[in-house]
Design brief:
By secondary structure, the protein is an alpha+beta fold. The protein contains 5 helices and 6 strands. The strands form 2 sheets. A 4-stranded mixed beta sheet has the order 1-6-5-4. It has a two-stranded antiparallel ribbon with strand order 2-3. β4, α3 and β5 form a beta-alpha-beta unit. It is globular.
Length: about 130
């Protein structure tokens, strides 16, 4: 898991999110509001829901972000997290504590290198299905 993830707020503009993605070399940033996870914004959200829809780089993240928040808990078993990722066809998940505060991000790479490689393989197989 990557601890202490960088977040953006719904009121920041998509240019801010894109600059953060470039700086930390990712295509995904959690969106937080008052210490709570309220959404996600991806490079694809910026392009498809933003630029392709005629919005400019100054539009608010809230206009393009994904509001449905998929996450796992920091005390879940690796196999359960991998299964969740596979079932939802996602390559990364925010990690929250029991108070639903964002504490990290877990990726398929984290599962394979730090967890159970077979679980990561099963998740990747499900994610890759059309």
């Amino acid at each position: 898991m990557t601890a202490h993830p960088v977040t953006v707020t719904p009121t920041q503009n998509v240019r801010d999110a894109a600059e953060i993605m470039k700086r930390i070399d990712t295509g995904f940033v959690p969106v937080g509001d008052n210490d709570r996870l309220v959404g996600m914004v991806t490079d694809r959200d910026i392009v498809v829901k933003g630029l392709a829809a005629g919005k400019d780089a100054d539009c608010k993240i809230s206009e393009v972000m994904t509001h449905e928040v998929l996450y796992c808990r920091d005390d879940e078993e690796v196999a359960a997290v991998a299964r969740n990722m596979g079932e939802n066809q996602v390559r990364r998940l925010p990690v929250v504590d029991r108070d639903k505060r964002l504490v990290g991000i877990v990726s398929l790479g984290d599962l394979s290198s730090d967890g159970d490689p077979s679980a990561a393989g099963v998740a990747l197989e499900q994610i890759s299905e059309s």
